[in-house]
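Working notes for the structural subgroup meeting. M.R. asked for a predicted model of this chain before we commit to crystallization trials. I am recording the input and output together here so anyone reviewing the notebook later can reproduce the run.

Input as submitted:
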Amino acid sequence: MSHHLREMDEREHNAEKLPEAIDCFRCGICCTRHQPPVTTDEAKDIAKGLKLSTEDFLSKYAQLTHFGYLLRHLERGCTFLSWEKDGYIARCTIHPFRPQACRDWIASLSRPECREGL
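Returned structure, recorded in token form:
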């Protein structure tokens, strides 16, 4: 049986031949390029983590598309992306309760985003 993983940009990889993971550079490029989907359960979890109602979270931090909800993007990327060290180190402000699409992101030199961040 073949297993495939789908990335946020809809590319698929054979799970048996995944690229080798590396430590994240915290460059933030993935968070500036991709808008992760947010399921109803994830919206509830993020809202709880932010001490908001689910409705308030969705109206302030998500955008409804024909694909469902996506985390809102600002000029410098994901609404939850924070920059440290004069804009050189990226940090996710909802990291403990981030969406599954973000949890599934594996930093790898096979990713153009990670190569660029290097």
